Amino acid sequence: MPTVKVLIPTGALGLGYDRAALARGIAERPDIIAVDGGSTDSGPAYLGRGVSKYSRTTTRAEWRELMQARAVAGVPLVIGTAGTCGADSTVDWLFDITRELADELGQKLRVTRLYSGQNPAEMAAALDAGRISALPAAPDIDGDAICGCTNIVALAGAEQINAALATGADIVIAGRTTDTAIIAALPIERGCHPGAAWHGAKVGECGAIATTGPASGTIMVSFDETGFTIEPMAAAARATPYTVSAHMLYENSDPFLLYEPGGVLDVTGAGYTALDDRRVRVEGSVWRPGAYTVKLEGARVAGYQTASIALLRDRRYVANARGWAAEVAARASGDVVERMGLSHDAFDIELRLIGVDATLGPLERVAPMPGEVGVLAIATAPTEAQAGEIGKILNPYLLHHALSEDEPMPTFAFPFSPAEMSRGALYEFCLNHILALDDPMDAFRLVTEEIGHD
User: Three-state DSSP class for 273?
Assistant: First the structure.
């Protein structure tokens, strides 16, 4: 019976993990080390700009340890969605770090880069050819919308990861992938149960989140011909039928179905058995092959923003903060229309009350009034210059606007000078679609290179 052990050090490179747990995992002789590099959780700006959310310093430090662990284990190290967003630029970013570390550690490595970036013009042509279709709640798009994207990526599946591993790579740095693909790929390639491969990959995608010790990070998932077994590597962490089965609800709209490139995972008939107080065995998952499609993600510039922060401490102003903020926004908006010549639908002024309801807005439950309220003013406009100008129009209102005309002019506090802070481009996701492929590699490319030295 073929058995494939996949060691998952952490839910995402840059989040940290238990070093002792990682060492314990390496001692268990895994067949591959697989780690996720990011997701869309932090919004569209990282994909739009093609940069990593996590610091280079932190990424380098953790990647260095994983490269050392790989050398001890003598198995491939694979990362998916490199650099948070998986754009081609972040694949190259992590490759540069890898090359630095290979020289520093004295490692000679074969590194394969899997690029997921898509040419907007080619994607617009694919839309015209009927090869792109919308997922539920996808925005309406046309060729112009696609060509306006600063970055488009396709989510690679197991086939693309296995193609990269087939190059003989010691390290695979993949662009955007599904979270599960880097875990499921090798078990599928070696003949393990495909339903178990995808299900175990789903459970293991975020490391130890599917255990009682989520912060420990490191787990081992062992796959075979009939199912999979999950075991946390941290001494105090446990996997239970509850923690394992619940993970199908994580970032998934259906607790029984999970769509991946080339098919759908169905766990309706899966059974979860505690082997002991640490390990859980799962069997009964089914993989249903289908048309080969890959999900597309794209981001584009939606405008530019300038932000300011003012602090209210006077009790009357704190008590009347909502009305004060609404009047400031209305007066500043009127000035923008009158003095800048912009129509109301061309810009936006938003004042969020930090400490009152900045997170939930009208859904916030009534609470005692705080002693201080922070007012976050956000101006959004078609150009950076216009956003900055609106920020300056807001400035005197944020500093001196009175609740009534018959009282002395108040003065509030700005924590920064200048008060206006440019946020630059504002990005939005504009693709939630799938691309049909005749061959799984049609939208992807591989580059293999020898780096480092003995």
Answer: strand
**pLDDT-wise least confident of 176-185, 204-213, 331-340, 350-359:** 350-359
For residues 33 and 9, the answer to whether their CB atoms sit within 8 Å is yes
What does the alpha-carbon distance between residue 204 and residue 221 come to, in Å, rounded to a whole number?
7
Q: Per-residue pLDDT tens for 23-49?
A: 999 999 999 999 999 888 889 999 999
Write phi, then psi, for 309 (nearest 5 degrees). -125, 130
Model pTM above 0.90: yes
**Residue matched to tokens 């769509």:** 259
333-349 core/surface letters (b: 16 or more CB in 10 A; e: else): beebeeeeebeeeebbb
Contacts of 336 (CB under 8 A, 6+ apart): 342, 347, 349, 390, 393
Angstrom distance (rounded) from CA 57 to CA 79: 17
A 10 A CB-CB count for 115 gives 23
| 135 contact partners, CB below 8 Å, separation of at least 6 | 295, 432, 433, 434
Which residue has tokens 């780096």? 451
- Residue 99: how many other CB atoms lie within 10 Å: 15
Domains and CATH numbers, the chain: 4-116+155-292+437-452 (no CATH), 301-428 (3.30.70.600)
Using CB atoms within 10 A of its CB, is residue 129 exposed (0-12), middle (13-18) or buried (19+)?
exposed
